[in-house]
Write a structure and sequence with these properties.
The protein is of the alpha+beta class. It has three domains: 1-154, no CATH class; 239-461, Beta Polymerase, domain 2; 462-595, Orthogonal Bundle (Poly(a)-polymerase, middle domain). The chain is built from 19 helices and 17 strands. Strands 5, 6, 7, 8, 11, 12, 13, 14 and 17 form a nine-stranded mixed sheet that branches. It has a two-stranded antiparallel sheet with strand order 1-2. A two-stranded antiparallel ribbon has the order 3-4. The longest helix has 25 residues, at 243-267. It starts with 21 loop residues before the first strand and ends with a helix.
C-alpha cells in the first residue's frame, strides 16, 4: 500500500520512529489493558509487508471499513480469559519481525513476548486480509464458549494443534457435567481413546452400582438344603405303606370287627345299637412305616342326656340319663352313668367274642384307656386293634368348644357350621388317678369329649380349595409334614424312654393349629415341603418350651398337662439338635432299613 509521502521502513517499538501514537489505559475492575489507536491507515506492498506513513500524523480512519470497526470493537470488549495474550488476527497476517501464523484463542496456551504484542497493536491499523467463512464461524464458537469450559479444555489438551476428530471429542467433553469428566479422567488418563473404549465406558456409567452389588451378593443354593430335601423325600418314600400290606391287614381287621358287632347285637341288651366308626391314622391316610395300628369306635346311641363339666378344662363330663327306659340305666351310679362300669362289661363281651379267634390276643387293661386292645400277627407284622367304647350325643356342642375349632379362614364358616351340627362322642377316659373326686364323682366315672370323626374328615379334605391333592388340583405337603413329625417323635421315643408320655396325637394337634394359622394351600405347596416341615418343627418346639399345647377343639385343655417341664425342654433340645444337624436320626434309620 502506498502512503501520501515517501515510504519508510517498518520500525520496531524500540526505535524512535514516529508513528501512530498509542495511549494505554487500564481497567482496574477486570485487569484488561485498553489500547486507543490513532486513526492512521497504512497500505500493504504487493509482497504483503505492512508500511507506515512517512509523517506518522494523526488522521481519521475514513478508509477503514465498517466491518473492521465492528471486529475491533468486539475484540476490545471481549471478557478476560485465563490466557493473557490477545487473540490472533488471522492466519495470513505478517509483522515487521517476520511471518507469524494466527492461532485461535482455545489452541494458544503460552503467552507471547512483548515484541509480538506491540507488533499486533501496530498491525491494528493495517489492512487485514479477508477471512474464510469457516474461520469466522470457528471464532464465533470460541467466543461463545464459557471461560471455565475453555480452561478445562486447555488442561486436558495442552498441544496447540489437534485433528478435527479431537476437536469434536473436546466439544462433547465440554457438554458433559464436570463430575463425569473427572470420573473419565481418573479411569482413563490417556487423552485419546478408540471409539469402542468410549462406548464401553458409557455403558459402565449408565449401569447402576446397586445392580452390580446385588449380583455379587447372590450365591447358589446351599448344598445343605438340597441334602435335607433329598433326605426327607427318601424318608417319606420308605414310610409309604405298600398296597399289598394294606389289603392283607385290612381283611383280617375288618373280619374281626364284624364278628364283634354281631356278637354284641345277639348276646347283649345294652350294646345292640353299636355302630363302627373307623378313625385314627390308618383311616386318615396318615399311617407310616407299617399298617400295624387300627382304631375303631363302637358307638352306642343315647337320647336326652344331661352333661355336667368335670374339672376346669372342659374336656371331661359327667353324664346323667333323662330317659327312664334306657337300657344303659343298669350302669348308673346314682344319677350318673358310670364310665368304668360300662367299660368293664363291654370289655368282657369283647373277650367272649375273641375266644372264637385264637389268632387274636386281648392285652392287659391300661389305666384311663377307653379301648380294648387286641393284637395279632399278619405276615410277620404285629397288628394292634383298639376297639373303643363310646356314646353318641345328639345335642349341641358344649360351651367349652366355642373358642376352639378355628377353621373359618381355613375351611370356611359354612364348613364349620356343618361340622357343629353333627353329633359328638364321649369315651370312658380319665386323667390322673381314677379315685380322685369332683363334686362327689370319681374321675374313673367321667367321660371325655371326642371329635375324632371331625378330625378324620378335616384331614381327608384338608385344603382351602376343594381340589387340593386331587387330580385336577395342586398337591400340598400337610400330610407329609405330619408324617415326618410323627416319625421323628417315634424314633426319639425309641432312643429315650423318658419320652413315653409324648404321643402322635400331640403332633396331629400341632398340625391342626398350623393349618388354621397358615390357611392358604400355597403356604403348603409340595415344592416347599422342607420349609414347611421346618416351620412345623418350630411350632412344636414352641409348644414344648411353653409346656402348653391347647386342644384344637377345647382350647382350655392342655395336652401337655401332667408332663414334667424338664422333659418337654429336653425333647425340644433333641428336636433342635436333629434339625441343626440335618436329621442324622433319619439317615441312620434309612441305613438300617435298606433292602
Amino acid at each position: 500500500m502506498t502512503g501520501r509521502g515517501r515510504t519508510c521502513k517498518a520500525a520496531t517499538p524500540k526505535t524512535g520512529c514516529a508513528k501512530g501514537k498509542t495511549t494505554t489505559g487500564e481497567y482496574p475492575e477486570n485487569g484488561l489493558t485498553k489500547e486507543k489507536h490513532n486513526a492512521t491507515t497504512t497500505e500493504q506492498k504487493p509482497k504483503g509487508r505492512s508500511q507506515k506513513t512517512p509523517s506518522c500524523t494523526k488522521e481519521k480512519s475514513s478508509e477503514r471499513s465498517s466491518v473492521k470497526t465492528k471486529i475491533f470493537t468486539e475484540e476490545m470488549n471481549k471478557p478476560p480469559t485465563d490466557n493473557t495474550t490477545a487473540p490472533s488476527r488471522g492466519a495470513g497476517a505478517r509483522t515487521g519481525a517476520g511471518k507469524s501464523k494466527g492461532k485461535s484463542e482455545v489452541e494458544q496456551t503460552k503467552p507471547q513476548p512483548e515484541t509480538t504484542k506491540a507488533t499486533r497493536q501496530d498491525s491494528a491499523t493495517a489492512t487485514k486480509p479477508k477471512k474464510r467463512p469457516g474461520t469466522a464461524k470457528s471464532e464465533e464458537k470460541t467466543k461463545t464458549t464459557p471461560p471455565e469450559d475453555t480452561t478445562k479444555t486447555s488442561i486436558k489438551s495442552p498441544k496447540p494443534k489437534k485433528c478435527p476428530g479431537t476437536a469434536k471429542s473436546e466439544e462433547k467433553t465440554k457438554t458433559t457435567p464436570p463430575e463425569d469428566t473427572t470420573k473419565t479422567s481418573i479411569k482413563s488418563p490417556k487423552p485419546k481413546k478408540c471409539p469402542s473404549t468410549a462406548k464401553s465406558e458409557e455403558k459402565t456409567k449408565t449401569t447402576p452400582p446397586e445392580d452390580t452389588t446385588k449380583t455379587s451378593i447372590k450365591s447358589p443354593k446351599p448344598k445343605a438344603c438340597a441334602t435335607v430335601d433329598s433326605l426327607l423325600s427318601t424318608t417319606l418314600g420308605k414310610l409309604k405303606i405298600k398296597k399289598i400290606d394294606k389289603s392283607n391287614t385290612a381283611k383280617v381287621v375288618n373280619k374281626l370287627i364284624e364278628q364283634i358287632i354281631k356278637h354284641l347285637k345277639e348276646k347283649t341288651n345294652c350294646f345292640t345299637t353299636a355302630e363302627p366308626l373307623r378313625t385314627g391314622s390308618y383311616y386318615e391316610n396318615l399311617k407310616i412305616s407299617k399298617p400295624d395300628e387300627f382304631d375303631v369306635m363302637l358307638s352306642i346311641d343315647v337320647d336326652r342326656v344331661l352333661l355336667k363339666a368335670f374339672g376346669d378344662n372342659g374336656a371331661f363330663y359327667s353324664v346323667a340319663l333323662k330317659r327312664d327306659k334306657n337300657p344303659l340305666k343298669k350302669f348308673q351310679d346314682g344319677d350318673i352313668l358310670s364310665a368304668s362300669k360300662m367299660l368293664t362289661e363291654f370289655r368282657d363281651e369283647v373277650k367272649k367274642c375273641v375266644k372264637d379267634f385264637p389268632e387274636w390276643e386281648v392285652t392287659r387293661k391300661r389305666p384311663g384307656c377307653p379301648a380294648v386292645t387286641l393284637t395279632t400277627a399278619v405276615q410277620s407284622v404285629i397288628v394292634s386293634l383298639d376297639v373303643v367304647l363310646s356314646i353318641k350325643v345328639k345335642t349341641s356342642w358344649p360351651a367349652f368348644t366355642q373358642q376352639g375349632f378355628q377353621i373359618d379362614k381355613w375351611l370356611g364358616t359354612k364348613g364349620k357350621q356343618d361340622y357343629k351340627r353333627q353329633p359328638y362322642y364321649l369315651v370312658p377316659k380319665y386323667e390322673g388317678k381314677g379315685a380322685v373326686e369332683h363334686d362327689g364323682i370319681s374321675a374313673k366315672d367321667a367321660w371325655r369329649l371326642s371329635f375324632s370323626h371331625v378330625e378324620k374328615d378335616i384331614l381327608l379334605k384338608h385344603g382351602s380349595e376343594k381340589t387340593c391333592c386331587e387330580r385336577e388340583g395342586q398337591r400340598c405337603c400337610r400330610k407329609d409334614c405330619l408324617k415326618l413329625l410323627k416319625h421323628l417323635l417315634s424314633l426319639l421315643k425309641e432312643k429315650e424312654a423318658s419320652f413315653e408320655k409324648f404321643y402322635s396325637y400331640q403332633a396331629k394337634t400341632t398340625l391342626l393349629h398350623a393349618c388354621s394359622s397358615r390357611v392358604k394351600d400355597s403356604d403348603w405347596s409340595a415344592s416347599s415341603r422342607s420349609r414347611c416341615f421346618l416351620q412345623l418343627l418350630e411350632d412344636f418346639i414352641g409348644h414344648l418350651e411353653k409346656c402348653v399345647l391347647p386342644n384344637f377343639f377345647i382350647p382350655d385343655q392342655n395336652l401337655l398337662f401332667g408332663i414334667d417341664k424338664k422333659k418337654c425342654l429336653h425333647l425340644a433340645r433333641c428336636i433342635e439338635e436333629q434339625r441343626d444337624n440335618d436329621f442324622p436320626i433319619f439317615s441312620c434309620w434309612l441305613q438300617n432299613n435298606e433292602e
